[in-house]
Amino acid sequence: MPARLLLIDDDTRLSAMVGDYLRAAGFDVDVAGTLAAGRERLLVGPALALSTPFDALVLDLMLPDGDGLDLCRQLRAEPRTRQLPLLMLTARGEPMDRIVGLELGADDYLPKPFEPRELLARIKALLRRAAPSSGGADEVLRFGRLEVDLGARVARVDGKPCDLTSHQFELLVVLAQSPGRVLSRDQIMDALKGHPMEAFDRSIDVHISRIRALIEDDPKEPRRVLTVRGAGYVFAKKQDAD
């Protein structure tokens, strides 16, 4: 069964071109031109369902009836859509707009104009990250008060689930599976099977900041996920952080 994608963008020519390209690649694609239409297709709001009918969302930030960031915020606030892979499309030139979107829970972003081939590669990467792991499904990584449940795809602190997106969970797993080892940004992206990072790309840093906010006692003075200046990040061993 093909993966179902929802594209929310008011550019009808772009939507038609991208939709046709993704369908030719084997996806089932639905298109909405407004936030209201997108919410209706996602069953967000009063018409709640047990799960979203889509496997991933491609969301433009600038829409005629509102800001895509508002929908991003709403999706991440609802348990049933919290893990929905979400890629932002943005024509805005300011890096801060992208950073805000990532902080609100978007998994990735792609600035306009873009090549459909790159969009396809990024969507495939998001879906791979969100797919259940075939190995070690019952494994739980435990680090004092923190546990990373690979089978349930959830991180917990003192037994309470953390509101991580699918991408953030995968990033935490990459770090937690190599405690004490410094990983560069390129190594992290390779482990995530993602796209090559651009020089100005701060997505990893933003996601790390979000992870720290959820698993650290004091995100400003982290003891679990540490920055190694000029090198990358390291997940502190149990005896170092507990």
Largest sheet: 5 strands, parallel
Task: Give the fraction of residues assigned to helices.
Answer: 25-40%
What is the strand content?
15-25%
Give the SSE string. EHEHEEEHEHEHEEEEHEHHEEH
Number of strands: 14
Query: What structural class do you assign from the helix and strand content?
Result: alpha/beta
- Largest sheet: spatial strand order: 2-1-3-6-7
What is the count of helical runs?
Answer: 9
Q: Shape from CA axes? A: globular
Task: Determine the mean pLDDT.
Answer: 84
Poorly predicted ranges (pLDDT <50, ≥5 residues)? 195-200
Q: How far apart are the first and last residues' alpha carbons, in Å? A: 45 Å
Computed over alpha carbons, the radius of gyration is: 18 Å
Please characterize this protein's 3D structure.
- This protein has 242 residues and is α/β, with parallel strands linked by helices.
- 38% of the residues lie in helices and 21% in strands.
- The chain has 9 helices and 14 strands.
- The protein has helices at residues 12-24, 35-42, 68-77, 95-104, 116-130, 166-176, 185-191, 203-215, 238-241, and strands spanning 4-8, 28-32, 56-60, 62-63, 66-67, 86-90, 108-111, 140-143, 146-149, 154-157, 160-161, 182-183, 225-228, 232-235.
- The strands form 4 sheets. It has a 5-stranded parallel sheet with strand order 2-1-3-6-7, sandwiched between helices. Strands 8-9-10-11 form a 4-stranded antiparallel sheet, covered by helices on one side. The chain has a 3-stranded antiparallel sheet with strand order 12-14-13.
- Strand 1 (4-8), helix 1 and strand 2 form a beta-alpha-beta unit.
- Helix 4 packs parallel to helix 8 (203-215) and helix 6 crosses helix 8 (203-215).
- The chain is globular and about 50 Å long.
- The model is unreliable at 195-200 (pLDDT under 50).
